[in-house]
C-alpha cells in the first residue's frame, strides 16, 4: 500500500473524478478512470494501470487486487463514495493510460467497424464488445459518438475498449475514401435502397468496414455515398426498428472473422 | 376529455401506480400500465387501451392523442410527476388490458423463443423486440424472468410485448418436452458441449424453439437436457461473454422466419 487517503479533497481523488467527468481532460492527460473490481482487473490485462484505489472492505473481499500493477491507495468509505458512479459501488477504482491508436494502423485485409454519431454510451460499449468478440481489427468513431473511455461506455464494453484499437476520427467520408483506396470494402447499414443482409457476401479478402449510424438518425447521406455497398437487416412489420447495439452486433456477427 | 384529475390521491392514479409497481397486482387485474407518448400509441395498436392520462402540455404537443381509444383524463403536472418513472417524462400514461396467451397456442411448425430466469428487464424487453422483428410466433418466459409488462421491460420492448404471444410458464423442462412431442426442435444456447451457430441448420420445418438462459448463470442442466440440440455463438478470446440481449438476438436472427 502506497498511501492511505482519508480526504475527499485529496489531489489524486480530484484528478480521478475529473478524468471520469471530462472527455477533454481524458484526452489532454492520455488517461482514463474506471470503476469496479471485474472491470479494473479486465482493463489491467491490456492497458497500463497507473493508480488503483480501493476500500479496506474491497481489499479483504478481493485479495487478488494486491497483485495488480501500479501504485495502490487505500481509500476511506466516504472517499470511495465520491469516486463512485454506480448504485452499488464495490469500492474499486483505477486510473489507466489510454491506448493510443491512429488511422495509420488500418490495413488492407482487415476487418473494421465505423460508427457515425452513435451517442448512446451503452450502444457504443456494446458494439466495442461485439467487435472484439467477432474478431474485428479495430473500431473507428466519428465525432459526435459517445466517448469510448467514459464510465458508462467502459461498463457496457466490459473492457473491450482496450482489447482492440479504438480510433477517434472526425467526419467519416474521407476516412472511408482512404479505406476504399486500400481495397477495403465499406458497407453502409441503411434501411432503404439496400440489399438484405442474408444475401450479402460475408467474406471480403481485401478487408471490410461495417458502417453504422445513430439509432434515431441512421447514417448521413454523405457517409452512405462514401461506402461501396449498402445492407439492411430485414424485419417483419411488427417492429419499427431494432436497438442500434443489437442491429450492429448482428451485422458484426454476419461479417465475423474467419474461423468463428 | 372524461375528467380532470387534480389530486395525487385520485383513485385512478393510485390504481395506475399500483399496476406499475406490482407484478402480482398486474396479474390479478389483467391490466398493465405504460408511460410515454410513442410507447402508448404503439401499444394501443394491439392491446386494449382502457384509460389514457395526459397533461395539458402533452395534449397540445401531440394532438393525435385525442384520437386514441379509452377514457381520457387530463392530469395536472404534479399528478403526472407521481405517475412518471423516467428522468424526462412526457406526461402521457395508459392503462391497458394484458393480452392473455397460454401454452395451448404453441403449434407444430411455429418458431418460438423460451427464456429461463433472464432477470434483467432490458434484456427481456430487447429479446421480445428482436423475436417480433424476426418473425417468431411466441415467447415463453420461465418463472424468475423479468415481468414482460413491468415499466422497464415495456420500454425496452418498444411495445413488442403485445405484438406476439408472451406466455408466462413455470419451469421450462416440461414445457420443452411437450413442444418436442409436437415435433418442435428445441435448441439450447450453451457455451460448452455445443455446436457453433454457423454450422447449425437455420430451418426446421417441424418448428423450432430457441432456449436462452440468464447472463450470469446460463441454462440449468435440466433445461439443456430437455432440449434436442445445443448451440453456441463462437467468439474470440478477447471477451469473456456477450451481453444476453445481444447473444439472444443473434440466435433469433440465425433462426429467423422464412422470407427475411
TrEMBL record, chains A, B:
Keywords: Methyltransferase, Transferase. Residues 33-102 form the RNA 2-O ribose methyltransferase substrate binding domain. The lineage of its organism: Bacteria, Bacillati, Bacillota, Clostridia, Eubacteriales. One of its GO terms (cellular component) is cytoplasm. InterPro entries: Alpha/beta_knot_MTases (IPR029028), MRM3-like_sub_bind (IPR053888), Ribosomal_eL30-like_sf (IPR029064), rRNA_Methyltransferase (IPR051259), SpoU_MeTrfase (IPR001537), SpoU_subst-bd (IPR013123), tRNA_m1G_MTases_N (IPR029026). The keyword Cell wall biogenesis/degradation does not apply. It holds the Pfam family SpoU_methylase. Belongs to the class IV-like SAM-binding methyltransferase superfamily. RNA methyltransferase TrmH family. GO terms for molecular function: RNA binding; RNA methyltransferase activity. The keyword Protease does not apply. This is RNA methyltransferase. One of its GO terms (biological process) is methylation.
Amino acid at each position: 500500500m502506497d498511501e492511505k487517503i482519508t480526504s475527499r479533497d485529496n489531489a489524486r481523488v480530484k484528478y480521478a473524478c475529473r478524468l471520469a467527468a471530462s472527455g477533454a481532460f481524458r484526452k489532454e492527460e492520455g488517461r482514463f478512470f474506471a470503476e469496479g473490481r471485474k472491470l479494473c482487473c479486465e482493463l489491467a490485462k491490456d492497458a497500463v494501470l497507473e493508480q488503483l484505489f480501493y476500500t479496506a472492505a474491497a481489499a479483504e473481499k478481493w485479495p487478488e487486487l494486491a497483485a495488480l500493477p501500479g501504485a495502490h491507495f487505500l481509500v476511506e468509505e466516504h472517499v470511495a463514495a465520491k469516486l463512485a458512479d454506480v448504485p452499488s459501488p464495490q469500492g474499486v477504482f483505477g486510473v489507466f493510460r489510454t491506448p493510443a491508436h491512429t488511422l495509420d494502423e488500418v490495413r488492407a485485409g482487415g476487418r473494421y467497424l465505423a460508427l457515425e454519431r452513435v451517442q448512446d454510451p451503452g450502444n457504443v460499449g456494446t458494439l466495442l464488445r461485439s467487435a472484439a468478440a467477432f474478431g474485428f481489427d479495430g473500431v473507428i468513431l466519428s465525432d459526435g459518438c459517445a466517448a469510448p473511455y467514459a464510465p458508462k461506455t467502459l461498463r457496457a464494453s466490459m473492457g473491450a475498449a482496450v482489447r482492440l484499437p479504438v480510433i477517434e476520427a472526425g467526419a467519416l467520408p474521407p476516412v472511408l475514401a482512404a479505406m476504399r483506396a486500400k481495397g477495403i470494402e465499406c458497407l453502409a447499414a441503411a434501411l432503404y435502397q439496400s440489399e438484405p443482409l442474408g444475401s450479402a457476401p460475408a467474406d471480403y479478402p481485401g478487408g471490410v468496414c461495417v458502417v453504422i449510424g445513430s439509432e434515431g438518425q441512421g447514417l448521413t447521406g454523405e457517409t452512405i455515398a462514401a461506402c461501396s455497398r449498402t445492407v439492411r437487416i430485414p424485419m417483419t412489420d411488427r417492429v419499427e426498428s431494432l436497438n442500434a447495439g443489437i442491429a450492429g452486433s448482428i451485422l458484426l456477427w454476419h461479417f465475423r472473422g474467419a474461423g468463428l
